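Dear Dr. K.,

Following up on our conversation at the group meeting, I've run the structure prediction for Holo-[acyl-carrier-protein] synthase from Collibacillus ludicampi. I'm pasting the input sequence below exactly as I used it, so you can double-check it against your construct before we proceed with anything downstream. Let me know if the numbering doesn't match what you have in your notebook.
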Amino acid sequence: MRIGTDLVEIKRIDRLMHEESFLMRVYTKAERELADRMGPKRRAEFFAGRFAVKESVAKAIGTGIGQGINWRDIETLQQENGEPFTRITGQAFARMHERGLSRVHVSISHAGGLALAFVVLT
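The predicted structure tokens came back this morning:
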């Protein structure tokens, strides 16, 4: 079992999300499509929460982003009830597998202009 957490300023992501190159580099097509269905305030929270998940997963794997792990290797969507779930692909998946990890448990919170993600890999 490994854990990772990250805290992101929503305002920072709100500024960055207006740059198409940032969105294309960091978020999967499915993440962008899900965000497009939300209002402006919720959209910034959504992207900030997903950014925090990506960082948290990379920290839990033990590499951080880079070293072959791509932002889009870590995708967080939501189930019908709104519960987030995370899919790992590419090098991130390979690194998890090397460490004997196969499941991702994720929690995302937003408060006071911040987005927090907490991840447990088992």
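Two things stood out to me. The radius of gyration is 13 Å. Strands lie at 2-9, 74-78, 84-88, 104-111, 114-121.

Best regards,
J.T.
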